[in-house]
Amino acid sequence: MNVLEEAIKAIAPQYALKRARAKWQLHAAEKILASGYSAGGASYTKKALKGMVDYSSSPQLDIDANLRTLTNRSRILYMTSPMAASALKTLRTNVVGSGLRLKCRVDAQLLGLSEEEADTWESAVEREFALWADTRKCDALRLNSFYEMQGLIFLGQIMNGDGFCLLKFGQPTPHMPYGLRLQLVESDRVCTPYSVALPIGGSYQPFWGQNPDNGNEIYSGVEIDKNGATVAYWICNQYPYTMTGYTFEPPAWKRVPACGAKTGRPNLIHLFDAERAEQRRGVPILSPVIEELQQIKRYEEAELMAAVITSCFTVFVKTQGLSTDNPFGASNPLGTEPVAQNDNEYQMGMGSVVTLQPGEEIEVADPKRPSSGFDAFVIAVARSIGAAMEIPYEVLLKMFNSSYSASRAALLEFWKVVRMRREWLANEFCQPVYEQFLAEAVARGRIQAPGFFENPIIRKVWCRADWNGPAQGTLDPVKEVQAAKMRVENGFSTREEETIGLTGGDFKQNARQLKRENEILQEAQERKLT
Question: How does pLDDT run across 303-336, given as a tens digit for each residue?
Fold first, then answer.
């Protein structure tokens, strides 16, 4: 201890005690900062982490405040980037395809039905549902059938982050005995009225507001009550960020309660893939890879332009002035029309001859393009993008150049994602729509379901169903069929499950069709013998 410390201790012992305590705390803090995650991912001293932005806030500030920018960039990439379009369309095609089809699965034992009665009831419901779903009359806008709407809302959800569907009721007609109507609403129209704009990312993006009638907060068009539960959605009559929208009316918002006050029936279906608790709106699936997609798009455009320029053969001729015979200053011996040339414009072309002004010279920078490493670099970036989106790069690029086992492993890994998203779409969109349809069918007396409105458990059993989509592709059909046959023989699966998995078909319908075909074939053979 030096003289100064001794003097401080003698004159002001209380101050000396605080000083000693501060020195001990500083020493302890230095030890803590050098232990655990402080020496790893939480370090502020490592060079690799010094410039890393590590601030994260609530889901509303992290997601809702940036949602407009993410959605716009995701759409632009879908419209302009081949790899982004491939990612979204590949998911849509494999998850939904031509549409998930209804297969009723009632519990005959619990409902007191025989197997034959259950089959008859299921077939009747499937026919009634097909009457409603196969036509565009199920769409309030008369644009799509129910199966086409599945693909549209799913594509909108992964592209924009959200998918919205209003459940409406219209008047039945002689050709359509059901009043249930669906209306898809693009995510832009679900937004906050009377919103407060915050400066996010260099622009003012409104997302927060308040309902003046009850004081509930509204985040990106989703109204929540004091307990944090979603109670309503606010839908604008036009696209709020356009100049005039598609109407000449001023923007106006309508409050749509999430559920009916008396029946509890959902008025709106909101599809989004939550990644954080208390999250109100979804994030486009391209969000983590927007930068990579934009850069790879620019790289591909640059390489394409370099290939086009390399394929051109152009001769430049120095002259003391433009020829009177060729006022354009350029000629093309291949017969195409010449391109007008001025003092500031020179173009290369196939077999073009371009005259230069006095004193002008051509100096070409040779970047050695197209690059020989283009293909390998694109594949490397595709691996990174595919990993973030859970799409193997072989599937993303539609390139199966590896061995059979490697390609099959990629397809199996991708099929896990397809099954997960298909089940999610069925639970969040198809099944709720079907339950509303079945409730109307029972209420109108077209379907008999005793106890449907009296007991919620009985109602749930009546509504049980599977939603089957396109089957998984096969690289070697013979091996796949042999494996399916072995699974059935050993009781690991059923013929119905294997039929759905291999072809997406219906085993019972196949069996009935085969029975009829065998009878026709046997009759034809008997006639031939006689």
Answer: 888 887 777 766 666 666 555 455 444 445 444 4
Expressed in angstroms, the distance from the first to the final Cα of the chain is: 123
**Of the candidates 267, 284, 269, 281, the residue with the CA atom closest to the CA atom of residue 427:** 269
Rounded to whole angstroms, how far apart are CA atoms 473 and 476?
A: 9
Strands across the sheet with 253-257, in order? 196-200, 203-210, 217-219, 222-224, 230-236, 253-257
Which candidate, 264, 208, 202, places its Cα nearest to that of 231? Answer: 264
Encoded tokens for 78: 């879908």
d(CA 277, CA 220): 16
Q: Which residues of 395-416 are buried (b: 16+ CB within 10 A; e: fewer)?
A: bbbeebeeeeeebbebbeebbe
Q: Which residue has the tokens 């809302």?
A: 153
Identify the bridge partners of residue 104 per DSSP, sorted by sequence position.
Answer: 465
**CA-closest candidate to residue 189, choices 228, 209, 216, 163:** 163
Contact 294, 81 (CB under 8 A): yes
Mean pLDDT of 43-52: 74
Instruction: Report long-range pairs for 121-124 (Cβ below 8 Å, ≥24 apart).
Output: 121/447, 121/448, 124/447
**pLDDT surpassing 50 at residue 104:** yes
The identity of residue 309, as a single letter, is: I
Query: Average pLDDT of 229-249?
Result: 76
Closest CA to 125 of 445, 516, 474, 441: 441
Which tens digit of pLDDT belongs to each residue from 20-30? 666 666 666 55
* Structure confidence at residue 202 as a pLDDT band (50, 70, 90): very low
Sequence-distant (6+) residues with CB within 8 A of 332 are 338, 349, 350, 351, 352, 353
Secondary-structure percent of the chain, ordered helix, strand, coil, rounded to 5: 50, 15, 40
Phi, psi of 233 (to 5 degrees): -130, 145
Please give the backbone phi and psi of residue 496, each rounded to the nearest 5 degrees, phi first: -65, -45
List the beta bridge partners of residue 169: 180
Put the strands of the sheet holding 268-271 in their side by side order: 180-185, 163-169, 268-271
- Cα separations (Å) of 384 from 32, 52, 293? 35, 20, 10
Flag whether pLDDT at 514 surpasses 90. no
Would you say the pTM of this structure is higher than 0.85? no
Classified as helix, coil or strand, 99 is coil
Q: To which residue do tokens 């129910």 refer? A: 146
Could you report the per-residue pLDDT of 111-121, keeping only the tens digit for each?
Answer: 999 989 999 99
Residue bearing tokens 């990439």: 77
| Residues 131/437, Cβ–Cβ less than 8 Å | no
Token pair 């003012």: residue: 204
Distance CA 104, CA 29 (A): 64
Q: At what angle are helices 82-95 and 146-160 packed, to 10 degrees? A: 140
Q: Calculate Rg over the CA atoms of the chain.
A: 33
**Which structure tokens are listed for 131?**
């009457």
Question: Is residue 186 left, alpha or beta, with left meaning phi > 0 and alpha meaning psi from -120 to 50?
Answer: beta
